[in-house]
Design a protein that fits this description.
0% of the residues lie in helices and 47% in strands. The chain contains no helices and 18 strands.
């Protein structure tokens, strides 16, 4: 995982502009001035619910983000004091609740990914993932795949021509924690392709990506059909804080 306090490497198709959520209040982007501060928990946010409006995130009732548009994700971890937090996702500028996460521990020097997502029937859900980097290998690349596209309910992921993630359902990592763990793959340059499961119908591709030895990559499918602001896209995000 990159520890240089820069934005992680990422790839987006169709010239889509990446807008990084600004974490206000207690959640701040890491900088070279706080590398010795061990009393923090690391959190990254992903608004992957394309059928939901922009959201603001509340920690224990306090608004901690500005408006986050659908399709937006943090490219590096933000920091928050360790503790118990309940999270609420509200419509930006309103008091309407989109989804919530019950109070739980965000522990010292642990990493978490929080995702707002749509199911194929457009229902809105939220999940908290503890990102475990303890078993990463330095001799191979490390990756995981999330299908976060409600318009692609069953997907096969290929690295070059190798089928590495068959039949992945939308937000299946919500109920199957195994999918949140990193898998190993030989480092090198590859193409990535998401196809409709069991067919040769291409949903989205990344024509060229370098998966480095020791790197931790989250590959995820997101967006909705026919959208100009959040189109169906295959993304590669390298872990960074």
């Amino acid at each position: 995982m990159s520890k240089n306090y820069r934005k992680g490497n990422f790839f987006r198709l169709a010239g889509v502009v990446i807008v990084v959520a600004t974490l206000a209040g207690c959640m701040k982007t890491g900088s070279s001035t706080n590398t010795n501060n061990n009393n923090v928990s690391f959190i990254t946010l992903m608004h992957m619910a394309p059928y939901a409006p922009a959201t603001e995130v509340y920690f224990n009732g306090d608004k901690k983000t500005s408006s986050i548009a659908p399709g937006t994700f943090s490219t590096s971890y933000g920091q928050v004091p360790p503790g118990n937090y309940d999270l609420k996702f509200k419509v930006a500028g309103k008091d309407s609740l989109l989804s919530s996460l019950p109070a739980s521990v965000y522990d010292t020097l642990n990493f978490y990914t929080v995702i707002l997502f749509n199911t194929p029937d457009s229902a809105i859900g939220a999940m908290k993932i503890r990102d475990d980097y303890s078993n990463l290998t330095t001799t191979s690349s490390n990756y995981r795949f999330f299908n976060l596209c409600p318009d692609a309910p069953s997907v096969d992921l290929f690295i070059n021509t190798s089928l590495v993630q068959p039949g992945r359902h939308t937000a299946d990592n919500y109920n199957i924690s195994y999918y949140n763990a990193f898998q190993t793959f030989a480092s090198g340059g590859y193409s990535l392709t998401a196809k409709k499961a069991g067919t040769d119908s291409v949903i989205a591709t990344v024509p060229s990506v370098n998966l480095q030895a020791g790197g931790a990559y989250t590959i995820f499918l997101s967006g909705k059909k026919g959208s100009s602001s959040a189109p169906v896209t295959l993304n590669v995000l390298q872990a960074s804080y």
